[in-house]
Amino acid sequence: NRFRSCKPCIWGSDAHTEENLFHPSNGNTNDYTWVKADPTFKGLKQIIYEPEPGERVKISFFI
Fold first, then answer.
1. Is the distance from CB of 37 to CB of 43 less than 8 angstroms?
2. CA–centroid distance for 27 within its chain
3. Contacts of 46 (CB under 8 A, 6+ apart)
4. Is the pLDDT at 41 greater than 70, yes or no?
5. Rounded CA gap, 44 and 41, in Å?
6. For residue 63, is pLDDT > 60?
7. How far is residue 38 from each of residues 6, 29, 31, 59, 62, measured CA to CA in Å?
8. What pTM does this model have?
9. pLDDT over threshold 70, residue 44
10. How many helices (H) does the chain have, and how many strands (E)?
11. What are the CB-based long-range contacts (under 8 Å, 24+) for 50-55?
12. In the prediction, which pLDDT does 45 show?
């Protein structure tokens, strides 16, 4: 394993159905989630509290 351990990650989706949640483009695109924040831990935390208008933030934990 090149990463040696589990790492936290941010994943975004504009899926409109549960079936497309993990494959919103059905593999047809290489879309990425962009986070506009200062490159610090504080900046990363800030995306939870100040989403842009029209954006929603939901925190989910998958095990």
1. yes
2. 17
3. 37, 38
4. yes
5. 5
6. no
7. 24, 27, 22, 20, 26
8. 0.33
9. yes
10. 1, 0
11. none
12. 78
Q: Using alpha carbons, list the distances in angstroms from residue 29 to 23, 26, 32, 37, 55.
A: 10, 8, 9, 25, 21
Q: Is the pLDDT of residue 3 over 80?
A: no
More confident residue, 26 or 11: 11
Structural tokens at position 59: 């925190």
Residue found under tokens 């900046």: 43
Torsion angle of the four alpha carbons 53, 39, 7, 57, in this order, in degrees rounded to the nearest 10: -10
Percent of the chain with pLDDT over 90: 0
For residues 26 and 20, the answer to whether their CB atoms sit within 8 Å is yes
